[in-house]
């Protein structure tokens, strides 16, 4: 059988056909054995050889020629069946050790049979990066306004978001200059020429820009002009991504008007609040001192009233004791009066006996006189008895007189004690009433002292609270000032 791949064995043709190609080309025979790999594919595989060996330990770029392409596949049988039936170009992506490769397989046909395969390799990384980049650009285009310019400012294209913001159609702006979106003053300003000079030099421009719509209305665009380089690194076009922030700018303008109109009133109100808080703090401080003084005085008054209450308690006790003693003295005096009355009876009895003795002595004297000399001795005795009777009568009279005096004194003492007792009753009742009143006053005073202490604590709390309010007002003033400054900066930007 004729060697259909014989032409590949001629070095001059292989060198001309393959070695100088920039494409990464590998050729396999009909048995899928690699018979050639140009310099480009060798360089591509050698760059990742270390990683490929992690999954293919036997892989070697130096031993690539003569190897079967099955070494690149986990399921060679499937690959063989697919290539055996291959009639036209086939594209596939394989992954080895984290590296992706895009393959383009073209069968080499000799009449009606396949005699080999040409496989073109390329890193999938570039394609995937470009695919990801395209997806990102598409996503950005969906959410942002986008427009492309040539380096002289001529409009190339724009997406719907941009056209909607400026109220133009693509046909109305394509081929025209960027300056159609500027008012005459902006166009003539020297900064506009410098703007495009910077873009042409590769310096991107970003910020918030005032632009005009097709009907002359102002629109605010916030975004970035991005210079795009070609393969040689030279700026070839400018792409702008932007957002329509007109509503936000109008909101900031309204905010500025509110700031200018309201912050003066807020500052005045805060100043008044601060002054009122300071005045209230001073008043509360003075009231706190006054209430503390009153609390101290109330405590002193309570102590004095308590002392008086104790004295009145002692007075009541002494009065009760004196009243009891007066009652007892009255009872003793009454007993003494009764005893003197009884003594009167005894004195009367003694007087009666003395009278009878005196009468008996008189009879004895008479009888002794009758008896003559025989009755002289008896007369002497009778005379002595008469004398004793007279003395007894005299003593009895004195006793009676003394008893009368005692009875008079007892009567006077009894009357005086009755008067004293009546007075003591009045004093006792008065002392008891006073003591009760003083005790009630003592309770009220103690309660008042406690309330004054509580009031002092409450006033101190009020003073502390007012101090806190004053601090809070100061803090609010600082916060409002910071808010004002921040709002001014926000509006300025």
From TrEMBL:
<dbReference type="InterPro" id="IPR035965">
    <property type="entry name" value="PAS-like_dom_sf"/>
</dbReference>
<keyword id="KW-0807">Transducer</keyword>
<dbReference type="InterPro" id="IPR004089">
    <property type="entry name" value="MCPsignal_dom"/>
</dbReference>
<protein>
    <submittedName>
        <fullName>Methyl-accepting chemotaxis protein</fullName>
    </submittedName>
</protein>
<dbReference type="Pfam" id="PF00015">
    <property type="entry name" value="MCPsignal"/>
</dbReference>
<feature type="domain" description="Methyl-accepting transducer">
    <location>
        <begin position="255"/>
        <end position="477"/>
    </location>
</feature>
<dbReference type="Pfam" id="PF08447">
    <property type="entry name" value="PAS_3"/>
</dbReference>
<dbReference type="InterPro" id="IPR013655">
    <property type="entry name" value="PAS_fold_3"/>
</dbReference>
<feature type="domain" description="PAC">
    <location>
        <begin position="205"/>
        <end position="257"/>
    </location>
</feature>
<dbReference type="InterPro" id="IPR000700">
    <property type="entry name" value="PAS-assoc_C"/>
</dbReference>
<dbReference type="InterPro" id="IPR000014">
    <property type="entry name" value="PAS"/>
</dbReference>
